[in-house]
Write a structure and sequence with these properties.
The chain is built from eight helices and no strands. It is an all-alpha fold. The chain has two domains: 3-87, Rna Polymerase Sigma Factor, Chain: A, CATH 1.10.1740; 92-172, Orthogonal Bundle (Arc Repressor Mutant, subunit A), CATH 1.10.10. α1 crosses α2 (16-38) and α3 crosses α4. It starts with a helix and ends with a helix. Residues 89-109 have low confidence and may be disordered.
């Protein structure tokens, strides 16, 4: 089975085998995206499960679907943001003024991982999101554009500002 045939099974006959294939295909990616938003492994698992359940309920309502993950990502992202709003964790937004950055620090050694996550949590959700997609998921601008459903130029601009914000947050520390 491939993604296209799994989507057809879901759309035409609501066959759970098709959806199971899609979950298996994307559950790891979804988890990492959720943990990037939430920085909480347990809550990331819960939000992923909730998001896949929402997708399963809603996929038969679609007339067509070319790619599953960009559509699913909107559900996952909205679930994460709703959770953050309910916890008021996203209200700590910083101004972006620094021009230097090194997002490769996102995959730095154990010594700085906590500092990196703290800096990420200080960013606006859309900045955190784009850094995770680019530097943890190693996605191309085109892939990010497709998932976020924004133009490539917006991806590049948002990434630029996110890197600056990350560097500023990281430099400030706690």
């Amino acid at each position: 089975m491939n993604e296209a045939s799994a989507i057809r099974l879901c759309l035409k006959s609501r066959d759970p085998r098709g959806f199971e294939f899609l979950v298996q295909q994307y559950r790891r990616e979804a988890y990492y995206h959720a943990i990037g938003f939430l920085n909480d492994p347990v809550m990331a698992e819960d939000i992923c499960q909730e998001s896949f359940a929402k997708a399963y309920i809603n996929i038969p309502r679609l007339e067509s679907l070319k790619a599953f993950y960009p559509w699913f990502y909107v559900i996952l992202k909205n679930s994460c943001l709703s959770y953050l709003r309910s916890k008021r964790e996203h209200s700590d937004v910083i101004d972006v003024i620094d021009e230097t950055s090194d997002p490769a620090m996102l995959v730095a050694g154990d010594d700085s991982k906590q500092s990196v996550w703290r800096a990420l949590q200080k960013l606006k959700p859309e900045f955190r999101e784009i850094l995770i997609l680019k530097h943890l998921q190693d996605m191309s601008y085109e892939a990010i554009s497709q998932i976020l459903q924004i133009p490539k130029g917006t991806v590049m601009s948002r990434l630029y500002h996110a890197r600056k914000g990350f560097q500023l947050a990281f430099d400030k520390g706690d």
